[in-house]
Amino acid sequence: MQSHADQIVQALKEKRLRVTPQRFAVYANLLDRTDHPTAEQILGDLNRDAPMSSQATVYSSLQALYKAGLVREVLLEEGVRRYDANVAPHHHFRCETCGTIEDIAWDEIRDLSVGGVDRYEVTVYGQCERCAATLAAQGLPHKPDLSQT
Fold first, then answer.
1. Which residues pair with 74 in a beta bridge?
2. Crossing angle between the packed helical segments 55-67 and 39-46, to the nearest 10 degrees
């Protein structure tokens, strides 16, 4: 049975990526989370205990992992790139109240039967269960009033 570290090293080598401590740390960080972090959030995590990475190193590691197909970029907000180590086809849910991002299994949304579609990704917006319950307990509607925006 391979250790988590050995699996990371093997995945990097299979994609012909040089295994550096920083690249290893960035990929390991992404594999251990499901919140679709930004590069800045990853940098903060990596440097929390002892500074070891620069912003440029994190960005270059993410780009190398993306080009190799080990991570995907998730664009849910204009101008904000988030990263996900789950490269299997799936969709996303984003809570409009707290900002939580959750994966939605691919088969939970029916295939689009439009001619010529090669791929697609759906992002569903609303309130997560926690926020919907909080709003309901306060007697507030769970759907934001978009008419005033």
1. 82
2. 120
